[in-house]
Automatic annotation (TrEMBL):
<dbReference type="InterPro" id="IPR036390">
    <property type="entry name" value="WH_DNA-bd_sf"/>
</dbReference>
<dbReference type="InterPro" id="IPR011663">
    <property type="entry name" value="UTRA"/>
</dbReference>
<dbReference type="InterPro" id="IPR028978">
    <property type="entry name" value="Chorismate_lyase_/UTRA_dom_sf"/>
</dbReference>
<dbReference type="InterPro" id="IPR000524">
    <property type="entry name" value="Tscrpt_reg_HTH_GntR"/>
</dbReference>
<keyword id="KW-0238">DNA-binding</keyword>
<feature type="region of interest" description="Disordered">
    <location>
        <begin position="83"/>
        <end position="122"/>
    </location>
</feature>
<keyword id="KW-0804">Transcription</keyword>
<dbReference type="InterPro" id="IPR036388">
    <property type="entry name" value="WH-like_DNA-bd_sf"/>
</dbReference>
<dbReference type="InterPro" id="IPR050679">
    <property type="entry name" value="Bact_HTH_transcr_reg"/>
</dbReference>
<protein>
    <submittedName>
        <fullName>GntR family transcriptional regulator</fullName>
    </submittedName>
</protein>
<keyword id="KW-0805">Transcription regulation</keyword>
<dbReference type="Pfam" id="PF00392">
    <property type="entry name" value="GntR"/>
</dbReference>
<dbReference type="Pfam" id="PF07702">
    <property type="entry name" value="UTRA"/>
</dbReference>
<feature type="domain" description="HTH gntR-type">
    <location>
        <begin position="6"/>
        <end position="74"/>
    </location>
</feature>
<feature type="compositionally biased region" description="Basic and acidic residues">
    <location>
        <begin position="88"/>
        <end position="122"/>
    </location>
</feature>
Amino acid sequence: MTFGEQPAYLRVAGDLRQKIVSGSLAPHTRLPSQARIRAEYGVSDTVALEARKVLMAEGLVEGRSGSGTYVRERVEPRRIARTGYRSGGDRTPFRQEQADERMRGTWESRSEQERATPETARRLGLDPGARLMCTRYLHRADGEPMMLVTSWEPLAVTGRTPVMLPEEGPLAGRGVVERMAAIDLVVDNVQEEVGARPGLAGETALLGGVPGRVVIVVSRTFYASGRAVETADVIVPADRYRLSYHLPVR
């Protein structure tokens, strides 16, 4: 195979992909059988099987037990606007920290104490095993689960204060910036790193889909005078949503 030449299974997958994108193979249409792919493209069973695997991995087709492989319905991704912290009005800062205030829906949450893993300790500048308050959130829009958020706050910062539990007390649900201000910590910086990975079984069970389907992960950390006071992972399904950033120009 010369440089730039595609393997046979990728050429077959590319042709089938084009048919799916163009509508020649409509949603819910059964994908040509392995035998038909082999005959139509003049390839081996192995090539036909690998081409089908590519389309499945790309989320263009899905297997149905005892029935075959079918073209998945293409859903236009919804935008999630991330605009940074803004105070005032009837906005709820915590919700805004996760998603744009125009996102309507419901939130479910639960908080519990846990020990910092090496990764959360690194992000918070703590020693592994440090005590944290971990709060897990599930957001539903129009009844559909669409966002998971896991937030960690050092109990060395919030422990024995009125804001120790993010969703209870006098500032319940008011968000990191406002809650930290109540204990004389001024949040002045936030860092976000955006990546993607296969969804874990527990995540996809809550968000819908199958384990291994790609999710977008926003790893966010709030700082007050250089000290990390909260870090969180925001997780959304990559095939249903896009992140849209609106950043001020200074």
